[in-house]
Amino acid sequence: RLFTKRAQRDIIRADMVEQLTNYIEIFASSERFGKRRGDRVKDGRVISLEMPYVDYSAPVKDFITLVYKFDKTYPQFKMYDHIKTLKRHKIEWCIYDIREADVSKADARLVLALIMGTIRGEIFSAGNLLFCLENGIVTRWLERLREIDQKSKSVK
Fold first, then answer.
1. Of 21, 35, 74, 129, which has the maximum CB count within 10 A?
2. What DSSP element (H or E) covers 8?
3. Phi and psi of 125, rounded to 5°?
4. Listed residue (129, 114, 106, 113) closest to 80, CA to CA
5. How far is CA 131 from its chain centroid?
6. What is the pLDDT of residues 43-77, one digit of tens each?
């Protein structure tokens, strides 16, 4: 089963997965997801040293907020424990493994762990999420989540 019966009922009632998967269209119409920031260089010289970071667009910030809200609302998906979920599927918590993960048969917990792992990975490596957005990886995960959600609704 893709979702437990309890999770199916919760998701159908709240439509929070639908809120997440609506970002497929939002991200498809976005020209820019964010801008990398950091050291400023002028005439080949570094004039300001800053820790690198990404200044994400409003839709991406809203998406991140929604992912954390989903995590708090549905603890049964154990998104807080995304590293264990990834390891259980033999995926290391690094951008290389995460971006190459085959989600064609993934369950909801794995897809959500990939999303959460990428978002939390920003702490250690600014730009992981930006890379996954720009290369359609997040969209691929959301499409799989939509597919799972539609199947669970048709079972009901």
1. 129
2. helix 5-14
3. -150, 95
4. 113
5. 11
6. 766 566 667 789 999 999 999 999 999 998 888 88
Condensed to tens digits (0 to 9), the pLDDT of residues 8-23 reads 555 444 478 889 999 9
DSSP string, 68-136: HHHHHH-GGG-GGGHHHHHHHTT--SSHHHHHH---TT--HHHHHHHHHHHHHHTTTSTTHHHHHHHTT
pLDDT above 90 as % of the chain? 46
Rounded CA separation 69/63 (Å): 10
> Is-contact 100 94, C-beta < 8 A?
no
Close Cβ partners of 71 (under 8 Å, ≥ 6 residues apart)? 77, 79, 80, 116
Is residue 143's pLDDT more than 80?
Answer: yes
**Each residue of 78-98: pLDDT tens digit?**
888 888 989 999 998 887 888
3-state secondary structure of 35: strand
- Picking from 130, 127, 135, 97, the residue whose alpha carbon sits closest to that of residue 114 is 97
Distance between CA 11 and CA 74 in Å, rounded?
9
SS3 label, residue 36: strand
